């Protein structure tokens, strides 16, 4: 008789378990919505650094022209995290290498925030 009762015993998620699970899911989603744009901006900065460094017309250009080229590309992509004055420009064996180090602080709730440190190079 015990075998038959255990077979028909109800199984499932309790209301408390569902609430805790949904709270965790919402928290992960909120943090994800704050973090993903930071990494999208980082990818755009990397793409622009590589594009400017590999531009054949800028290989013999001075620092001002290189910074201007980066500024134009950054305006098109809507990059506001770094500016052209933050760029480090190095000529390595006749190859142009651009790099930038920057920090992004994303506020979460009240006085809690996330800090991201990036160091991006064109090579």
What would you say this structure looks like, in words?
The protein is an alpha+beta fold. It has a domain at 36-121. The chain is 50% helix and 24% strand. The protein has three helices and three strands; from the N terminus they run αααβββ. The protein has helices spanning 2-7, 15-54, 63-77, and strands at 88-92, 95-109, 112-121. A hairpin with a 2-residue loop joins strand 2 (95-109) and strand 3 (112-121).
Summarize the structure in short:
With 123 residues, the protein is an alpha+beta fold. Helix content is 50%, strand content 24%. The model has no long low-confidence stretch (mean pLDDT 88).
User: Roughly how much helix do the residues carry, as a percent range?
Assistant: 40-55%
Overall form: elongated
Helix/strand/pairing category: alpha+beta
- Terminal Cα separation, in Å? 72 Å
Mean pLDDT: 88
Order of strands in the sheet with the most strands? Answer: 1-2-3
Can you tell me the residue ranges where pLDDT is under 50 for at least 5 consecutive residues?
Answer: none
Radius of gyration: 25 Å
The total of beta strands comes to 3
What percent strand?
15-25%
Main pleated-sheet profile: 3 strands, antiparallel
Listing every helix as H and every strand as E from the N terminus to the C terminus, the arrangement reads: HHHEEE
Number of helices: 3
């Amino acid at each position: 008789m015990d075998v038959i009762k255990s077979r028909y015993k109800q199984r499932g998620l309790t209301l408390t378990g569902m609430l805790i699970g949904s709270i965790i899911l919402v928290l992960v989603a909120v943090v994800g919505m704050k973090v993903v744009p930071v990494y999208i901006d980082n990818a755009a900065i990397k793409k622009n650094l590589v594009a400017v460094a590999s531009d054949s017309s800028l290989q013999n250009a001075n620092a001002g022209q290189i910074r201007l080229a980066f500024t134009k590309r950054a305006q098109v992509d809507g990059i506001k995290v770094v500016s052209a004055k933050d760029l480090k420009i190095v000529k390595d064996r006749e190859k142009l290498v651009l790099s930038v180090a920057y920090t992004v602080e994303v506020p979460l709730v009240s006085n809690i925030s996330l800090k991201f440190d990036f160091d991006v190079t064109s090579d």
